[in-house]
Structure prediction request, 347 residues.
Amino acid sequence: MTDTRTVEETTTSIRTEAPAGLLGRVAASPLLRLIARRVLIAIPLLFAISILVFALLEAMPGDVAQQQAGMDATPEEVEAVRKRLGLDRPPVERYLSWLGGFVTGDLGRSSVSGQQVSTLLAERMAVTMELVLLAFLVSLVIAVPIALLAARKPGGFFDRIVMVLSMTLLAVPNYVLALLLVLVFAVMLRTLPAIGYVPIDEGLWANLRSVILPVLALGVPIACFYTRFLRGDLVEQLNSADYIDTARAKGVAPWKILWSHAFRNSSFGLLTLVGLNIGGLVGGTIIIEQIFAMPGMGMLMLQGAMSRDVAVVQICVFIFAAVAVFANLFVDVMYAVLDPRIRYGSR
Prediction:
């Protein structure tokens, strides 16, 4: 009761003293203050990432102008390409030019195709985002019910099967799993296409058929990881938490204890894993898109790296890193939404 009164009094005090308008609403709301603070932290982090990406691409061996002009090009032709790409300017000036263009929405042109990078991204981003979102959905749909069932009777037959299968699948790299899926479902059973992508505007079922195998290749290893983590955390909660004993003493049904009490607390740990895995999952699309010939950002970045298309590689790497940053920001916000103590404790 003391803590509740303290929180209410503090909240009332903040509301009374807060200025009017948008800033006033942000100051009065612990959740909005937390979001604003995290966004302010993310901005310099993204700035640092952009510098790091630019520096790494600058440090890559080889002469981009020579590669673009061709090995048989004359020095004059190489110099002309260098000027066309802006490589004759100092690195700091080129970085500031790129940063200014990024802020204003001008991402430059591909040095290979001559197309606007923003146009290339718009075509490819939807494919990668569909793969990532479906892979996460599949991983959670698989992991949560299996972990709940396994944690209900630790050491039982189902639990042992789950542990063995999840450990086995975790040991298999996702590109090997992708090839196995192609072998089984595309070559042997002939039920799903081995390569290619069908846009959703050409039919929902055709689109889903084209992404099932890549989504499974991305999502199944993560599902195994989530299952093992969630199952272990649930078992620990059920065996050692005092509030579980209290619920049992009150006669609460075992399934309700498992779902409403143990899983609710374990979901915080699962949420952390989700945030940490998003960056890895987006990076994993580079290989998976290549195997399944999916025209996404991963393939675009790989093609850009092979052809030394700096403008394309630069923005792709930055977007992959930014996705990881915003995923962690989202997890922080979800923590505060699920647990009010974090909102009030973050002042």
Notes: The mean pLDDT is 83. Residues 29-104 form one domain. The longest helix spans residues 254-291. The radius of gyration is 25 Å.
